[in-house]
Amino acid sequence: MTLSGSARWALRLFMAVGLTFIYVPLLLVLVNSFNGDRTFAWPPRDLTTRWWSAAWENEGARQALLTSVQAGLAATAIALVLGTLVAFAVQRFAFFGRDTLSLLIVLPIALPGIVTGIALDSAWRSVMGDLGIGKGLFSVVVGHATFCVVTVYNNVLARLRRTGTNLEDASADLGASGFQTFRYVTFPLIRSALLAGGLLAFALSFDEIIVTTFTAGPGVTTLPIWIFNNLFRPNQAPVVNVVAAVLIVLSVVPVWLAQRLAGPEAGASRT
Amino acid sequence: MNAIKLTGLRKSFGTVEAVAGVDLEIADGEFFSMLGPSGSGKTTVLRMIAGFELPTAGTVELGGRDVTRLAPFERDVNTVFQDYALFPHLSVQENVEYGLKVRKVPRKERRERAEQALASVRLTDFGRRRPAAMSGGQRQRVALARALVNRPKVLLLDEPLGALDLKLREQMQVELKAIQREVGITFVFVTHDQDEALTMSDRVAVFDGGKIVQVGSPEEVYERPASAFVAGFVGTSNVFTGEVAKALFDRAGTFSVRPEKIAFDGDAGAPGVVAEVIYAGAVTRYVVDLEAGARVVVVEQNRHGSPGTGLRGQRVRLSWHDEHVIEIPERKEPSDGA
Ligand SMILES: Nc1ncnc2c1ncn2[C@@H]1O[C@H](COP(=O)(O)OP(=O)(O)OP(=O)(O)O)[C@@H](O)[C@H]1O
Ligand SMILES: [Mg+2]
C-alpha cells in the first residue's frame, strides 16, 4: 500500500498522540513515585525513595501484593492445565460440539467483565454458598481463570496448528512410547507457547479489577482493589503511586517477555 | 520368509474407500515400489504398514508376525516421511540418535552409530547443525540416516525425493539404491514418478483407485501391462481399441505400442500426418494423426542433432514389429479375489 505524503504524516501524528496518551500517564506515575514533594509538584525538585519504603511498610499494601501474586499464580496454573488440555482436544480430535467448545473457551475475553462478574457473583450466592464454599481467594481465582484460560489456549492452539502431527508420528515411528513422544517432542515444541500464554495470563490476572470486585470475599483485597480503595485518601497518595508503579512493572514485564518468546520462534519452528 | 505380507487390506475414511482390498507379499531384501496416480491409496497402505492407521479390514504381517493391531513403536519398521519430519528443536546428530535414545541404547554406542549413519549418507560434519540450516537434499539424507541407524527390517519411504530438483533427485536415486544394496534391508518406496519406479525397483506394484492393478518386475510392467490403465500410466503409450485396432492389427482387441518402438517408414506402414514436433533434448516426440483414426506418439533419438520442425504437416508412414505389439487383456479386474 502506498500513501500520499500528507496521509503518512497524519498517520504518524495520530500514532504519536495515541502513544502519548497511553504512555505519558504511566511514566508520570513511575516518576511521581520518586517525587520528593508530597503534592507531586511538577517538575519534581528532588527525588526520594521515601514513598517506596513507606509502601513497603504499609501492611495493607503488602497484604494486597501477596494476595494478587497468589491469585495470579493460581489462576495461571489453572489456565495452563485447562488451556493446554482443551487446545489438544480441539486440535487433535474431531468430536461433537468441538467448535462450540472452542467458542465457549474464547468467549470470556470478549464478554464485558461486569457480565462475568455478575454471573459469578450470582453463581456464588445461589450455588456455591449452599455448598459451604464462601467467597474468598478461591472465588477470585476462579473468576480470573475464566479469562486466563483463553490466553494459554490461543497460544498452544496456534503452536499445535503450526507443528501438526507429523513430528509425533515420526517419534512413534522411531520407537518412542506416547510418554516419550510427549516429553521429547511435543512438550519442547509447545514450551515457549506455554510460557508466553502463562505470562500473559498472569499479567491479565494481576491488574484485573471488575471481575475481582464481584468475586472477592470480604477479607480479600488484591492490589488493584487496594489502589482503588485508597485512591481518594489524600494522605495515602504517595503510597498509592508506588503501588501503581509496581503494578505497571509487574504487568508490563510479563507481556514484554511473552512477546519476545512468541516472536522469534514463530518463524523457525517448522523445519 | 516374506518381510511384509498384506492380506485383504482395506481402509475407509468415512465414505471414501482409500484402500479397497490389497493383497501383497514383499520378499526380504527387496526394493519394492508402489506406483500410482495421486489419491490411489499408496500413502494409506504405507501408513497401515507403519502402524499410523488401523485397517478397516485385513491384516498386516511383518516377518511372519501379525502386527495389525500393534502401535508404530512396537513394529520393526522405520519411515522416511515425504516432508522428512525432522525434529526442528534438535540438532542433526540428536535427530539421528533419537531412535536409539528412546530405546535406551547407551550414550557412547548411540553416538558412534549415529556418526556412522551420518557418514553413510555423506553428512559427516553436519551433526551440530539444526535441520532448518540445511538444504532439501541434506535434510532428506538426515531423514534417511535417522531411519537407517535403527537397523530396521523394513524401511518405508513415502515419495522421499519428491521435493528435490531433477539433478539431486537422480543423484539420490543412485545413492538410495547403493545404500539399499549395502545394508540389505527391505525398501518399500512410494512414488508417482514412473521413471523412478522403473529404474530403482526389483518389483513394482501399480495402484489405481485403492487397488493394485499389476505387480511385477519393471520389465514386466512396462513391456506387458495388464491393463490399458497400466499401459497408459507406466510410460507414454499408444492404445488402440475398436475399429482402429481392427484396421491396424486385423483383429479385435485392445493393443498398445510404445512410442520408441514405432519407426518412420518410407513406403510401407500405416499412413498419417505429423501434427506436432516436440524437441526434448535427447529425443524428439512426434504426434501423428493416423488415417485409421488414432493419434499416436512416436519417439526418436536425436542421433543426428536437432530434427527441426520441417516434418510438421508432412504425410508419413509408421511401422513397428509384431513382437512389440502388446495385446492388453480386456477388462481384467485387479487380483483382489473379490
Ligand atoms: N485422513 C484422511 N481422511 C480422509 N480421507 C483421506 C485421509 N487420508 C487419505 N484420504 C483419502 O484416501 C485416498 C487415498 O489417499 P492416499 O494419501 O493414500 O493417496 P496417495 O496414493 O498417497 O496419493 P498421493 O500420490 O497424492 O500422495 C484419497 O482419496 C484421500 O483423499
Ligand atoms: Mg501419498
TrEMBL record, chain A:
Transmembrane spans: 12-34, 69-89, 101-120, 132-153, 184-203, 209-227, 239-257
- What keywords are annotated for this sequence in UniProt? Cell membrane, Membrane, Transmembrane, Transmembrane helix, Transport
In which broad location class does this protein mainly occur, judging by the first location in its UniProt entry? membrane
Subcellular location, in the record's words? Answer: Cell membrane
**Per its UniProt record, what InterPro entries does this chain match?**
Bact_Polyamine_Transport, MetI-like, MetI-like_sf
Membrane disposition: Multi-pass membrane protein
Q: Which residues form a coiled coil?
A: none
What region holds the ABC transmembrane type-1 domain?
65-258
Family classification: Belongs to the binding-protein-dependent transport system permease family. CysTW subfamily.
Q: What is this protein called?
A: Spermidine/putrescine ABC transporter permease
UniProtKB/TrEMBL annotation, chain B:
Which Pfam families does the record associate with it? Answer: ABC_tran, TOBE_2
Q: Which residues form the ABC transporter domain?
A: 4-234
Q: Which GO MF terms are attached to this record?
A: ATP binding
> SUPFAM superfamilies recorded for this chain?
MOP-like, P-loop containing nucleoside triphosphate hydrolases
Keywords, ordered alphabetically: ATP-binding, Nucleotide-binding, Transport
Quote the protein name from its UniProt record: ABC transporter ATP-binding protein
Taxonomic source organism: Actinoplanes palleronii
Biological classification of the source:
Bacteria, Bacillati, Actinomycetota, Actinomycetes, Micromonosporales
